[in-house]
# Entry
Amino acid sequence: MLGLPDEQNENSDTITNNNSHNINIDGQFTAEKSFDHVFFPTAYEDRTSSLLFRQICSYVQNKCLPSKKCGISYIKLLFPFLSWLKAYKLTWLPNDIVCGITVAIMQIPQGMGYALLAHLPAITGLYVSFFSSLIYALFGTSRHLSMGAIAVISLMTGNVVNRLTVKETLTTMVPSLLNKSTIESASNGAIIDPSYAITIATTLAFTVGIVQLLLSIFHLGFVTSFLSDTFVSGYTCGTAILVFTSQVPDIFGLSLKRYVGPFNVIYVPDIFGLSLKRYVGPFNVIYTYIEIFSNLKKTNIITLLVSACSIIALVLAKEYLDPFYKKKIKKFKLFKNVQIPIPMELIIIIIGTIVSYLLDLNGNYKVKIVNTIGRGFRKPQGPSVTLMPTLMKDAVIIAIVTFAICMSLAKTYAKKFKYMVNSNQELTAYGACNIIGSFFASFPSAASLSRTSVYVNAGGRTQMASLVACSFLLIIILRIGSLFESLPKACLASIIVVALKGLLLQMKDFYTIGRVTKLEAVVWLMTFLSTVILDVDYGLFVGIIVSLFVVILRQFRPRTTILGQYDRSNAYKKARRFSNAFEIPHVKIFRFESAIIYFNADFFRESLLDSIGIDLKTGQQRKNNPQESNDMCLSFRSITHIIIDCSSINQIDYSGGKIFIQALKELNGCQYKVYLCQLRYYNYDVLQKLQMDKECSVIVTATLHDAVHDIQDDLRENHNNKKIQF
# Structure
């Protein structure tokens, strides 16, 4: 006795109706037997609301209110560093020290550059690198993530800072200028107040942390499941274009000061006489490039020369010198399994600072420099409660994007090195990084792909390497940071542009995805274009909406297949796809490759009836249609049996079940004998509760081959009785 092929080990509902349909098992026809009389049901797991409520209460009691005996376990769960610290081996320490110093060297230029990208003082980038690395080492479950400032999150933070500092500027307008089409700021000091910008960024970080903690408490980490790899690729590639665009003015030495005008146009004359508009909001990238090209004649030649030298040095080091250097260094036993890159970013910062200081590039050639960096930490300062409601939308977006980026990296390296990461604990760690860091002038942080890759290649074994990096950064912040005040911004812009190479190369994903599935390519393209043209906020929403639309579209208009017998075997394939799969005479085998639910049930009915030539309006067999060949019309008229392969139907809801039964009734009305094969037990239960046995006549079989065997027996019997040839 056989059960349903895909349900042999599953429980089934108990069905007590004894007046069900004919059941065919292994070609042996058993008449007037109930479904559960052939497939013996076991105890069914009740999933009622009361049971779910009891399970929730039990979970809260056992998980949220643990006993004292479980206290130690939950402390280890909350502080994962206790687990790896207990198992730490001294032989790992040299690798972690080398890795920590290497990562810290990368964090210095990247942190400063991404802070400027967020329209904040450069020192705040070092704060982000220090506090996020330190806190994640205590709370995080991944052994290899390198936390700190990244381009995507810095750009999103910069957009928020831009938008709110513009609103603050509006309160200091010169009244006599209000009648102009473009509103000018009263003074340069009113345009960007560093203290207010830091307040906005730290409040945003605090709000992001609160959102991440709430996601962790309510175990809502699954929300990132709606962000597909296709979406993330298109979104990050689009933000890379925006980041690149934001750095172009610094590379050419063009000043971006601000006015506030219609269509989010922002500009103000520079003190050196250069006037370059900055646009924010939708279509800003288009207008920005128009403005850049129209002002190329005002390029600062010295700044452009600094940028060109920096970019060339970085490209040569990464593409040519670094591979050669790593190959040579492997000859030494100490570095055999450790890959330490050439710290070209730090070298450029040091050389750029020295040259700028000695030649006074800012005073003599008007080259923009970092200016005041400061030394030490700011006094702890809480967030602005009045700003939090305004920042909530941006905080939710940044929290979700941060989690998606970090978890994808954490899972990748956890799988590679065979350890587990806890998604909810990761959310707690990210939330703690942002909340605690926000009191020390830190903006939102995330895991960096480039630094994490270096972390792994440099031989890092645990988060001890992050603690080593924090020690190195602490020295920089307390003693050395102020020495970089003469650093040209063009050097930092060049470092950011070169670091975007990996993200920009994700454009190749569009072609790769398009070769696999066109709909996913549409998701990538729409996400990319909306992010670039409409800005990061709109790009996120458009990308998610298009992704969900594609999912719904696949369910709304799923594939339908007419199957044929493959070389007279028990295998059945798509008849139009394989030349050696032939439709069986007088039999039409129909497969619907999706769940049958309320919004695609009509499509199921229409596809089924159309496949056998039934007119959807009259419900009768179609007469000769000029658009159909005579062979097709004869084929329709010769069909006597219909097999519906239900193996791909994983769900039937109430509306879908009613239309399913209606289609079966229409087939019965046209004198077709209908078979349902490989029907899942829970779908059969739905159809039984809708009184399928009273509404129509069908035969249920365990497999498709059983249905074909029974039809052949039926046709053979009719042939013998009525002398009808096939």
User: Anything to note?
Assistant: Residues 92-174+192-267+284-336+344-552 form one domain. The radius of gyration is 33 Å. The CA atoms of residues 99 and 116 lie 26 Å apart.
